[in-house]
Amino acid sequence: MPKTRGEGEEREITGRKQHMQEECLEFCLTAQAAIRCAANSVKHSDPNPDPGVNAAEKESQEKEKVLNSLMSGALAGAVAKTAVAPLDRTKIMFQVSSKRFSAKEAYRLIYHTYLNEGFWSLWRGNSATMVRVIPYAAIQFCAHEEYKQILGNYYGFQGKALTPFPRFIAGSLAGTTAAMVTYPLDMVRARMAVTPKEMYSSIVHVFIRISREEGLKTLYRGFTPTILGVIPYAGLSFFTYETLKKVHAEHSGKAQPSPPERLLFGACAGLIGQSASYPLDVVRRRMQTAGVLGHSYSSILLTMQDIVREEGLVRGLYKGLSMNWVKGPIAVGISFTTFDLTQILLRKLQRGPGLQR
């Protein structure tokens, strides 16, 4: 019996081994088939496979693209804002006061500032503007390019112009991203624009005094109306500019508009975007400068109510809009044109002529 039991156990062990071998073989065959399937999927996932471009090169190209967008956006923002800085400062001074706006009064204010404080005082606060606008514009334009690519992949428009709604969303997301990152600098710039130079000696001094006297939360006062204003402003601006370029290409047969046409398209984009979001811009400025002008604004609605009660709906919430119709289109037109042309130049320098945006 012990011998018979031993033979039975041996046969059972042998059977188990054979069963395990069969299972292992089946598993290997299944894994091999899965690997082949995955390889084929990866191989066919790229609609334009380039055997000469490996993963490292693709990563390098992506970094190069992001860097180009950041550099082009930074230059675009700096050039545009510097060009309209005197008008921008004048607009802010009217926005934060109860004075009635008119072209004549705006001219008087500019001339009075020039006589009393000198020519370069018209650019007071522009250093703070540059500190804010260079990263803001760099992030906004770069984010817009990335959001366009993400939305294009999501909706299946790789390499093609987005449809209207994704086009608007890409612009809104880009503006919101940039505003969230750089808002404290916008606050500082507004303070420097409406105060005498004796009050704040530098950008750092503004940060120190605000944090010491009013608290760090003050650096984000007016943040909500800023975001609510940026969504339609950035969305409509990018949407209008991209749409006009697309329509131009379809009707003219030219792949790219000329620089004057880009300026015109950008001006239209700025006019539409800023007109749609202007009341929130007034509210934002009032909340940002409340601490130095003796006002107390606790919310968007209360700020709007105070402005309308004291100055009227149109004269209050749309104060300075006519100046913005001059300043805004110029700034946005210069900004979009500078970005596009810088992108084209950088790509030509890096990869040779013939590659355009």
Automatic annotation (TrEMBL):
This is Mitochondrial coenzyme A transporter SLC25A42. Gene3D superfamilies: Mitochondrial carrier domain (1.50.40.10). Its main location: mitochondrion. InterPro entries: GDC-like, MCP, MCP_dom_sf, MCP_transmembrane. Mitochondrial carrier mediating the transport of coenzyme A (CoA) in mitochondria in exchange for intramitochondrial (deoxy)adenine nucleotides and adenosine 3',5'-diphosphate. It holds the Pfam family Mito_carr. Signal peptide: none annotated. Keywords: Membrane, Mitochondrion, Mitochondrion inner membrane, Repeat, Transmembrane, Transmembrane helix, Transport. It comes from the Eukaryota. The lineage of its organism: Eukaryota, Metazoa, Chordata, Craniata, Vertebrata. One of its GO terms (cellular component) is mitochondrial inner membrane. Belongs to the mitochondrial carrier (TC 2.A.29) family. GO terms for molecular function: ADP phosphatase activity; ADP transmembrane transporter activity; AMP transmembrane transporter activity; ATP transmembrane transporter activity; coenzyme A transmembrane transporter activity. Residues 42-61 are annotated as: Disordered. SUPFAM superfamilies: Mitochondrial carrier. It catalyses: ADP(in) + ATP(out) = ADP(out) + ATP(in); AMP(in) + ADP(out) = AMP(out) + ADP(in); adenosine 3',5'-bisphosphate(in) + ADP(out) = adenosine 3',5'-bisphosphate(out) + ADP(in); ADP(out) + CoA(in) = ADP(in) + CoA(out). It is a multi-pass membrane protein.
